[in-house]
Amino acid sequence: MEGAVESVVEKHALKNAVSHGGRADLNAVVKKLIAELPEVKPRLREVWPIIARIVDKVNSLSLEEQRSLLEAKFPELLERPSRPEARMLPPLPRAEGFDKVVTRFAPEPNGYLHLGHAKAAVLSYEYAKMYGGGFVLRLEDTNPRAERLEFYEAIREDLRALGLSWDVEKVVSDDLELMYEVAKRLIEAGRAYACSCPLKELRGRRRLGEECACRSRAPQDSLEVFDKMLEGGVREGEAVVRLKTSMKAANYAFRDPVVLRVVDHPHPLKGDRYRVYPTYDFACSVEDHEQRVSHILRSLEFAARVEVQEAIFEAMGWPKPIAIQFGRLSMEGAPLSKRRIAPLIREGVVKGWDDPRLATLRGLWRRGVHPEAVRRLILDVGPSKANALITWELLSSYNRKVVDPIANRYFYVPRPKLLVVKGAPDVGSVKVKLHPSFPERGQRELRVEAEGGLAEVYVDAQDLEGGGRGRLRLMGLFNVQVEEVDEVAYARYVGDELIDPKVQWVPAKHFVKVRLLKPERLFRDGEVDEGSLKVEEGVGEEACSSLRPGSLIQFERVGFARVDSVEPGGLVAVFSHR
């Protein structure tokens, strides 16, 4: 009996917490428990400590932790924003020619994912589901100098946040022995050779389209050089394995490309076990064959690589997948390239990969952009070959539709000025709905404690501009006539009927301090905007202190925000948009 109670309570506590901004309501959970297990009602006093313990435990978790646990243990209860149907995508070419449609997303674990990565991942995932096929997550970790252990799990986390799951996960460094075997077969067949030309000479000959003497090596001689590479008898830069294609090809990347090279650097997973690593084209080709990938979706920057990879398939006699190149995404005022972001972090221009001015997925999440908004935007852009510049206004319009029904409402007053109301009725507190469209979510309480005809509240100084003499409605409380505005503003109570303008307010005795980070475009006219992260300080209603980091909320009449951190007496939030 006790085990059943614990399971049901945990289920409904998680569900209630995720639906209400990260905090489960004890009474609501009890009602759900009794509805599901009526036999508990006569023993409610006995099991109450169990219920309270589990609800407290759930409430101690962050909203992300609550959502992850709910998805892992009770996925059928997880409310997801409505998802557009994958059939909105154009059909894949020649899909009927494969036994099964298999797509893949193959990031390199050398940085955090950004909006451009999300396009490749979402399109690949949706096409696999559209055709009832398979989706592969492949971590292309064959450049040990660039890879970092932290990025492996970060990639998985960001993809899960996007709502993606995969049928197969492959870490390419697990298949290095396979790569060596394929390379030996190519060498034996005369389709690849070991080249000992100095790197500078190699590049020069490729640029001129000239063959080197190594190209005419007998397969056995090339195999001997390759074995020395594997055994440690060749230092980095002294020899490589090249695919034999054409040194006169118009496509520079197709001129006898390097497919394996020595890298004297420890690997984050393999340590010093290996010294020879495949290049991107070679690793992709072997893995695409091994995983029976039918369609490769990636941006146009990879177009030059298609010819190289197809040559590897032809040399091995493998059936070729279909490569689909789509236009690149760029973000207004925010770099996507890791090469551009990394120096900004080193120089302290941005605070990290999750800086809310960046269009890394972590930066977007921290800014309060819901993953579902990113997914919807990408599906609407689709696999078009046209490059697309995404503006923050466009992304905000998608995000607004997703977060509006999710975000509970709270009062926040920037530029707070004390307003003393005379002749006020005795009001202990007022209750305001957490969300006007979802009354079942409950209410939050604002303790006014108006006594002896005086009430003290904070209002936005801008609402009192121009002397402020006029009638205002303090939302959810009463109306006032502003009479004097100085260091302190004074007003008198003038009734309860609904009037305009309505202003938000916060009790002067019961509030929390709020620091609102307001990110703007990081780059303007190609230059870094030093003032692109503004900090606004104000006061919020007392209920804000119970919010959890990660909660998506709306400050009424200000805009949507994401709770960044909660500290004693206050919180930090990141402004998303209006």
Descriptive labels:
578 residues; alpha/beta; Glutamyl-tRNA Synthetase, domain 3; 5 domains; 7-stranded mixed sheet
Briefly say what this structure is.
The protein is α/β, with parallel strands linked by helices and 578 residues long. 41% of the residues are buried.
Protein described:
The longest helix is centred in the first third of the chain and has 18 residues, at 2-19. It is built from 15 helices and 29 strands. It is α/β, with parallel strands linked by helices.
SSE blueprint and pairings:
Layout: H1 2-19, H2 26-36, H3 44-59, H4 63-73, E1 102-105, H5 115-130, E2 134-139, H6 149-161, E3 168-171, H7 176-188, E4 192-195, H8 199-208, H9 219-231, E5 240-243, E6 258-262, E7 276-278, H10 280-290, E8 295-299, H11 303-316, E9 322-326, E10 329-331, H12 338-346, H13 361-366, H14 371-381, E11 388-390, H15 392-403, E12 408-410, E13 412-414, E14 416-422, E15 427-433, E16 443-450, E17 454-460, E18 471-474, E19 479-485, E20 489-493, E21 502-503, E22 506-507, E23 511-519, E24 523-524, E25 527-528, E26 533-541, E27 552-555, E28 559-567, E29 570-577
Parallel strand pairs: 1-2, 2-3, 8-9, 10-11, 12-27, 14-20, 18-21, 23-29
Antiparallel strand pairs: 4-5, 5-6, 6-7, 13-26, 14-17, 15-16, 17-22, 18-19, 19-20, 23-26, 24-25, 27-28, 28-29
